[in-house]
Amino acid sequence: MIKEVKNGVLYFDGCNTVELAKEYGTPLYLMSESDIVGQFTQLKDCFLSKYTNTRVAYAAKAFSPMAMFAICQREGMCIDVVSGGELYTAMKIGFPAERIEFNGNNKLPCELEAAIDYGIGRIIIDGLQELALIERICREKGKKVQVLYRVTPGVKSDSHDYIVTGKKDSKFGIPLDEDVIFPAVEAAIASDYVDFLGFHFHVGSQLHDNGSHLQALDIILNLVKQVKEHLGYDVTELNLGGGFGVVYTDENRKPYSYFMTPMMEKIEGFFTDLGVVRPAIVIEPGRSIVAEAGISLYTIGSIKDIRGVRKYVSVDGGMTDNIRPALYQAQYRGVIANKADAEPTETVTICGKCCESGDVLIRDIGLPEAEAGDTFAIFSTGAYGLTMASNYNKNPIPAVVLLKEGSHKLIVRRQSYEDMLACEVLPE
Ligand code: LLP
Questions:
Q1: What one-character-per-residue DSSP string does 214-250 give?
Q2: Predicted ipTM?
């Protein structure tokens, strides 16, 4: 059991969360290494070991400390990066460049140059100008790089509008209009500076239904067929993106096999019928690897009971360490970690300390009586928490502690006030 209650106290991956709050201070991110490795194991069982020529590229944007990349390396995963910073982090720990894939709708020339210098495994080209930019850089450097095209399959998916990416009106990917995509593919095939491998799609994030993945897959397979028919070219790689949903409150999380098995069956059948060797298949999960592996700990401070209206229970963090409720109306569950088995007696709203009325972490949660000094734990904060954290109001970014079966170690130290000023210059 990753999460359990002993003597009224919440334990996570064998560690007493109240003790951790005391030892490391709050706000604090806890990450369970056992849970992260467990996710990779599930992917190995239903995908990597079941089908040959498959890869998992962890989407770094969900949680990107060096220690996370080291776990990916140890577990034999690849990494999907979307910026020079994520790429730098991976290279810093000696992550093999050929196991890194680079996504993004506006990769900067300096980022592409760095990626090509490092000898990165794949660049997922997101727009038509990007091919020319990559070709220019490769020409100057005398290099060649392997590329895929990210296409927009034009399917709808059921998630928050900000994290739906597969529809046609999207800043990501290349639309599948014939007069756009075929000339682009032809140009990539003919290029002396890139090896064109195939196509990439990502339909959206936090999806609990496999419908949009399967729909997008049909569209992409049709494209593969057309490329073979019109251009006589057999693609050697397909990347199906990420997007697998997790539990924040009462969602029904599906196993990876719910997505992977029907997709792989479709793919295998398709290429057998086409009489062509199946290309490599890559997926890019982010959230599903790390979301449930994370818990945020806070200390409760001010409590304000506006009689007949609402009781506000404030914690010492907020939208600066978890922007998701304010940005996506994301919902979370939590408990008072030192009263974890007490019955709820009141309904309160957990708010942060930022000067912003929208800085609410959980609206209307049933809790036992909250008191200043209690430790409050919010579940499933491992994805897009730290990576979207900010210094708004000059609040320092919290520390991260990695837990494993009762042991714990610091992997990101808490920012100090001095750290926050480190890039500032006071004019003479
Ligand atoms: N691959 C590509 C090309 C992506 O754009 C994304 C996510 C992923 C993979 C990973 O998707 P995941 O498996 O994590 O669903 N900040 C938002 C989520 C933004 C996702 C953006 N792209 C949130 O907190 O909900």
A1: HHHHHHHHHHHHHHHHHH-----EEE----B---SSS
A2: 0.99
